[in-house]
Design brief:
Na+/H+ antiporter like fold; Rossmann fold; 2 domains; 6 strands; 5% strand
């Protein structure tokens, strides 16, 4: 059985096993590769072979297609602060620790960079599964992941220039970076129509996109740059084209298959770890799974994210990513990383990616919220038979005014300090925090309220809210829902649900009126 056939079979088995076990595919594929390296014919698997190299190019190209600049605009400041804090702090600590473990300066720096980058594949998959990608929290995490991908590619370019020896002409890597950037600017100036990417035939779009990819790969090859830099630049250059959405899905499908082959080949090239390798990997793993959540949570809290969101963001980002494996492969090929460093980075990535779905859960995040120290909450005077409004965003102004017009005491909870300050200036009692936080609910005396009106979007948070207030025992709880299945679920739990599925353009006014009708019993007698 030749190498390509063995890689394809192992890749198919690994993808199927990952879907069956509901685990990230990358670590499963790496383990499959490690397993087949022990089979007859598997010992010759090389991660730098022609097939794995092409697979890697498509993997990074697909990642570049996702780095559309417009996607970084939303929550850009928060994403920059959180992403840079993680990259700098974890990268620096990882570098110092690797140096202390006996790795030389360049190798230690490469290891530190590898520990600082999280997995876009794992992060995006979990955000999609939990319907969080459209939320502000999800957009921040996505922005951090895309920023780290960009920083990792810059690091790969630097490592490639350090490790390049014989190149076609002097200062080739620097010239290559200039040519890649010039190619990017040329494509953006020409636009999709002039290069033929204005057709509605997906097959033609894929052909042209692949041609662009190979053109950038050629620039990288002949100037001594890592091929992944050229592939990533090609993806970024096409990311904002109007047909970007058309080519993303087919390229992603190709990428799933070819990247599976790359990760299997990577696993097959890992030597059995020694006791020292395991010790080094365990030490580096501790930095990723213990330090990353703390750094991210602190930076996210200071950037305005709610307590639970900040902690969950830290858990979601506490793993090494697929580009860490790319860095390990490149570093080994250039002689920057020895076999021990390569094995350590590979082991840390595999273990941390498999652990993330198990620990980055809403339940574990709330468990940490209740046990970590926090600042004392602002107290409000004792109050009863009041209305608690959870969430007061830009679309809640009509709802707020209608509730004030009901002439009953009102307390608002919002996680934005600016919103809370504005409400207090208007004479409205307001508390800064997350609406489903039990400490916040206790601070606003929610159980003694006449009604709790929730504008929280996440169904899971509203379910948790209902559980904390008690079904049929506490106040009337009014929530909104967007889908019929959510309406049915929340109704079974005892909520008065105002559905937004049929509201249309005037949703804020109609929802407000619906909530007032549902809370007729709170009107003063």
């Amino acid at each position: 059985m030749n190498e390509t056939t063995l890689l394809a079979l192992a890749a198919a088995f690994g993808v199927a096993a990952a879907q069956r076990l509901r685990l990230p595919a990358v670590p499963i594929l790496v383990l499959c590769g490690f397993a087949i390296s022990w089979l007859p014919g598997g010992a010759g698997i090389r991660v730098d072979g022609a097939v794995p190299t092409l697979a890697l190019a498509y993997l990074v190209f697909a990642a570049g297609l996702e780095l559309e600049p417009a996607r970084l605009v939303d929550n850009l400041g928060t994403a920059l602060r959180v992403g840079l804090a993680q990259f700098v702090v974890v990268g620096s600590l990882g570098t110092l620790l690797a140096s202390g473990l006996g790795f030389d300066g360049v190798a230690a720096a490469a290891i530190g960079v590898g520990l600082a980058g999280s997995s876009t594949i794992v992060g995006v998959r979990l955000l999609i599964e939990r319907a969080q990608l459209g939320e502000a929290f999800g957009r921040v995490v996505l922005g951090v992941l895309l920023l780290q991908d960009l920083l990792m590619m810059l690091a790969l370019a630097v490592i490639g220039s350090l490790g390049s020896g014989d190149t076609p002409f002097p200062a080739a890597p620097l010239a290559g970076i200039g040519l890649v950037f010039a190619g990017h600017l040329l494509l953006r100036r020409l636009g999709p129509r002039r290069i033929g990417m204005h057709d509605d035939r997906p097959s033609l779009m894929i052909l042209i996109a692949s041609s662009v990819l190979f053109a950038f790969l050629g620039i990288a090859h002949y100037t001594g740059l890592p091929l992944v830099v050229g592939a990533f630049a090609a993806g970024v250059s096409l990311s904002s084209f109007p047909v970007g959405g058309m080519i993303r899905a087919p390229i992603a499908s190709i990428g799933v298959f070819v990247s599976a082959i790359f990760f299997v080949a990577l696993g097959g090239s890992i030597e059995p770890p020694t006791a020292r390798d395991l010790l080094v990997a365990g030490t580096l793993l501790a930095v990723v799974v213990l330090v990353t959540p703390i750094v991210v949570a602190v930076a996210a809290l200071r950037s305005g994210l709610a307590r639970r969101e900040a902690i969950e963001a830290g858990l979601l980002l506490a793993q090494c990513g697929e580009l860490t494996l790319v860095l390990a492969v490149l570093g080994k090929a250039l002689g920057i990383l020895d076999e021990a460093a390569f094995s350590a980075l590979s082991l840390v990535t595999v273990v941390s990616m498999m652990a993330t779905p198990l620990f980055a859960t809403d339940r574990f995040a709330w468990w940490l919220v209740g046990r970590l120290p926090r600042r004392p909450l602002e107290a409000i005077p004792p109050i009863e038979n009041h209305v608690v409004l959870l969430g007061c965003g830009r679309n809640s102004e009509v709802l707020l005014e209608m509730l004030r017009g009901a002439e009953v005491p009102l307390v608002v909870v919002d996680r934005d300090p600016g919103v809370v300050a504005t409400l207090r200036e208007r004479g409205i009692e307001a508390v800064c925090g997350e609406g489903s936080d039990p400490a916040i609910l206790e601070a606003v005396q929610a159980k003694s309220a006449r009604a709790v009106v929730s504008t929280i979007r996440r169904v899971a948070d509203n379910v948790r809210l209902l559980g904390r207030l008690g079904m049929g025992e506490g106040p009337i709880v009014i929530v909104r829902a967007f889908f019929d299945e959510d309406t049915a679920r929340l109704t079974r739990l005892g909520a008065d649900v105002v559905s937004e599925a049929e509201v249309g353009a005037a949703e804020t006014v109609l929802v407000a009126r619906g909530i007032l009708r549902a809370t007729a019993s709170i009107q003063p007698s």
